[in-house]
């Protein structure tokens, strides 16, 4: 188990690079960061959105069943239960912390500065009215492209911590633990790279502050550690 913790700590350090660098540079979101690559990052971030996350989970579960050579339905089912539990645990904790901390998203703070609409007022509105406010204020904006405005309208909740980061890093940690880096270098590298791009997308699209990513990665760390312990205890993996 100690070796597993060391692996997770090394990966956690990797996931800290993006938010720590942006903190050191005193970076904050502005429309000037939007470019052609931002649209690609939007597609990547969609893989961790609620409506696509289920498909992402199913795909990764099937991949794990294959690479772990799970021959029996019971093993595959138990692995699915563990993975589903990990996702629900991480997102449940995230939701509780979000509602308690009530931190404004970067794009909401930008709207506050640009259009003199206080973030407290924005979050006091019901979600449908938040979406309408974004639409009415930005419909003629030359700074915010339509595709980003439409995405903002679907993400009007609080920022801290990043649920997308919790989701992606949890998967990366678990695959590192359950599959192993040396045996499946390509698969593990792809999942880790995907998780890093999720982090970048959340910053680039104005959805999160660097500190949101740090806590998201930390939550993923603990959830994956618990998941790994359960998988070993239930003899799904060695």
Automatic annotation (TrEMBL):
Q: Where is the chain membrane-spanning?
A: 9-30, 50-69, 76-97, 158-178, 185-205, 211-232
The keyword Membrane belongs to this UniProt entry's keyword annotation: yes
**The enzyme's E.C. designation:** 3.6.1.27
Pfam families noted in UniProt: PAP2
Q: Which SUPFAM superfamilies match?
A: Acid phosphatase/Vanadium-dependent haloperoxidase (SSF48317)
Keywords assigned by UniProt?
Membrane, Transmembrane, Transmembrane helix
Report the GO molecular function annotations: undecaprenyl-diphosphatase activity
Q: Does the keyword Protein transport apply?
A: no
Its cellular-component GO annotations read:
plasma membrane
Q: Which domain of life is it from?
A: Bacteria
Q: So what does this thing catalyse?
A: di-trans,octa-cis-undecaprenyl diphosphate + H2O = di-trans,octa-cis-undecaprenyl phosphate + phosphate + H(+)
Which residue numbers delimit the Phosphatidic acid phosphatase type 2/haloperoxidase domain?
A: 79-228
> Which named protein is this?
undecaprenyl-diphosphate phosphatase
Q: Which organism is it from?
A: Candidatus Schmidhempelia bombi str. Bimp
């Amino acid at each position: 188990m100690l070796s597993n913790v060391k692996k997770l700590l090394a990966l956690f350090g990797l996931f800290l690079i993006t938010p720590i660098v942006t903190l050191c540079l005193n970076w904050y979101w502005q429309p000037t960061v939007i470019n052609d690559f931002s649209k690609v990052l939007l597609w990547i971030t969609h893989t961790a959105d609620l409506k696509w996350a289920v498909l992402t989970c199913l795909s990764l579960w099937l991949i794990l069943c294959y690479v772990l050579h799970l021959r029996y339905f019971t093993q595959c089912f138990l692995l699915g239960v563990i993975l589903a539990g990990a996702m629900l645990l991480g997102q449940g904790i995230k939701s509780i912390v979000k509602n308690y901390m009530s931190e404004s998203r970067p794009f909401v703070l930008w709207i506050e500065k640009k259009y003199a609409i206080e973030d407290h007022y924005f979050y006091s509105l019901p979600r449908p009215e938040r979406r309408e406010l974004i639409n009415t204020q930005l419909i003629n904006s030359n700074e915010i492209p339509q595709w980003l405005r439409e995405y903002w309208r679907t993400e009007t909740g609080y920022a801290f911590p990043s649920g997308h980061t919790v989701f992606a890093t949890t998967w990366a940690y678990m695959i590192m633990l359950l599959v192993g880096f040396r045996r499946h270098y390509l698969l593990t590298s792809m999942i880790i790279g995907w998780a890093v791009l999720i982090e970048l997308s959340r910053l680039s699209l104005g959805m999160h502050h660097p500190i949101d990513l740090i806590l998201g990665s930390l939550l993923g760390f603990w959830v994956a550690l618990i998941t790994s312990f359960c998988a070993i205890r239930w003899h799904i993996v060695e």
